[in-house]
Automatic annotation (TrEMBL):
InterPro entries for the chain: Acyl_CoA_acyltransferase, GNAT_dom
PANTHER family to which the protein is assigned, alphabetical: N-ACETYLTRANSFERASE (PTHR43072), UPF0039 PROTEIN C11D3.02C (PTHR43072:SF23)
Protein name: N-acetyltransferase
Keyword flag Ribonucleoprotein: no
Keyword field contains Nucleotidyltransferase: no
Residue intervals of the N-acetyltransferase domain: 1-163
One Pfam family cited in the UniProt record for this chain: Acetyltransf_1
UniProt keyword annotations, A-Z: Acyltransferase, Transferase
């Protein structure tokens, strides 16, 4: 497995992964598909902000991606990032998500991030277990704060604090 920074040529597969989750899953609470131009803009925005978008490649095929961006826009949150990780369905359950997350955590540490927060659908036990194995702990559960496919969804917040530095 090769884990590398995403390039513009990955926009098509990032679009496919995102839209699959929009149409079929509750890991993403959006219902409108995106197009390739929007994913290119996402890549450009993250690049301009110095934020990583990592892809995992297996035998030349992109299996999935992981990234983080600001958790909340206010100044005081600037060392806290919210991350996401998505794999193509055929690559799930093979340890690629944890490998992507480990690489993302290294980037976060190197980039001076103090805390990483994942916002996870409460029934996404695969993702919750993955995060627990990586050392994340559940720090909040917000019942019925989302909806999709005619169901209320609970949001589970999981956090990994990356260092014990005093606040600057
Ligand atoms: C969640 C996700 C990132 C985990 O990555 P992964 O590489 O599949 O992780 P793992 O191989 O370590 O599997 C994690 C757990 O999920 C289960 N799992 C993952 N994909 C599965 C699938 N398609 N069917 C059944 N179980 C699956 C694994 O069996 C494992 O369970 P365990 O902890 O009891 O062993 C990945 O499955 C994915 O992209 N899912 C869809 C999008 C999503 O949920 N993203 C996370 C948003 S917070």
């Amino acid at each position: 497995m090769d884990i590398r920074d995403a390039i513009d040529a990955d926009a098509a597969v990032l679009t496919e992964i995102y839209n699959h989750e929009v149409a079929n899953g509750t890991a993403l609470w959006n219902v409108k598909p995106v197009d390739e131009a929007q994913r290119l803009a996402f890549l450009a925005d993250r690049r301009a902000a110095g934020l990583p978008v990592l892809v995992a490649e297996i035998d030349g095929e992109v299996a999935g991606y992981a990234s983080y961006g600001p958790f909340r826009p206010q100044d005081g949150f600037h060392q806290t990032m919210e991350h996401s990780v998505y794999l193509r369905p055929t690559f799930q359950g093979r340890g690629i998500g944890p490998a992507l997350m480990e690489a993302l955590i290294v980037r976060a540490r190197d980039g001076g991030v103090h805390a990483l927060v994942g916002a996870i659908d409460g029934v996404n036990t695969g993702s919750i277990r993955l995060h627990e194995r990586l050392g994340f702990t559940e720090v909040g559960r917000l019942p019925q704060t989302g909806q999709k496919f005619g169901r209320w969804l609970d949001l589970v917040l999981m956090q990994l604090t990356l260092d014990d530095r005093p606040a600057p």
